[in-house]
Amino acid sequence: MKLRHIEVFHALIRCGSVSAAARRLNVSQPNVTRTLAHAETTLGVRLFERHPRGLTPTPEALRLWPAIEAAVKQLDVLDQLGRQLRHGVDQHLRLGASHAPGHLVMPGALIALQQMLPALEIELVTSHFSTLCEELLAHRLDMALAFEQPAPEGIECEHLMRAPMQALLPAQMPAPACVTLEWLNAHGLILMPEEDPLGALLNQALEAEGLMPTARLRVKTYSVIAELVIAGGGTGIVDPFTAERYRDRLQVLPLAPALDMNVALLKARHVPQPHCAHQLRTLLIEQLAIHARRWQSA
């Protein structure tokens, strides 16, 4: 199949009709029809059944689809590389981060990177893990920093750091010598949604100890958990970055036994990384090491 065959085939599968595919490709309907006919003649098989409401892919077309989709993704990679070459590989860096590392780890690394590369334009967005992965796969981000969890197909996760989650208690609450999950649960432990990466870890730990949550509150944003603890809404467990921000307003204590989480650098597989991305990776590792030393000395 030729490149134009692949583009038209992909558009027809996605859109379901010649007219919609033509709009997607910004060409005329006869152009799409001719290209499809040529592709079918070249392959010697019928790819679509025609009917009044549109097109239905044949079994032969469905067998081709995974390879076609993979080819289109690679074309997107080539298009991105072309844009980088056209505008200068180290002129623009698009970054994403989960909220907590975006607030505490990224700033120091970005300031250092700008000092090294004054002409570099940087975009940073903070979002949840699933959205960051979607943006990476769509080539709208170059890399992202997040708390590690199982990633979708096409995303590479590079482990950067392992760190213990921290317990949050109101400032005036008498704290035991050893803060356990059982004690926190008995004192109104605020939970996270099960689909959240840290929420999944916490739920697994509770189940492993045979504990039924006593609180009925689940909060996705870690800083909101801290604010609820300040307001007297119970106790909490959060990542060490969020805990560091609230150390002057709350009791921040280690869990026993420790409950560890991972920080990872995400990128789309097979997508070329600009040199400045590799420089940022080194700076992020340095920033994570600085935070780790702070936690150890606290």
Q: Please, could you describe this protein's structure?
A:
The chain has twelve helices and ten strands. By secondary structure, it is α+β, with helices and mostly antiparallel strands. α1 crosses α4, α2 (about 20-25) packs across α3 (about 30-45) and α6 (about 105-115) crosses α12 (about 275-295). One of its GO terms (biological process) is positive regulation of gene expression. GO terms for molecular function: DNA-binding transcription factor activity; sequence-specific DNA binding. Belongs to the LysR transcriptional regulatory family.
Q: Summary?
A:
The chain contains 12 helices and 10 strands. With 298 residues, the protein is α+β, with helices and mostly antiparallel strands.
Q: What gross morphology would you assign?
A: elongated
Number of strand elements: 10
Q: Write down the secondary-structure element order.
A: HHHEEHEHHEHEEEHHHEHEEH
- Beta-strand content estimate: 15-25%
* Largest beta-sheet characterization: 5 strands, mixed
Compute the average pLDDT: 89
The residue ranges in which pLDDT falls below 50 over 5 or more consecutive positions are: none
Q: In angstroms, what is the radius of gyration?
A: 25 Å
Domain HTH lysR-type: 1-58
Keywords: DNA-binding, Transcription, Transcription regulation
GO molecular function: DNA-binding transcription factor activity; sequence-specific DNA binding
Family: Belongs to the LysR transcriptional regulatory family.
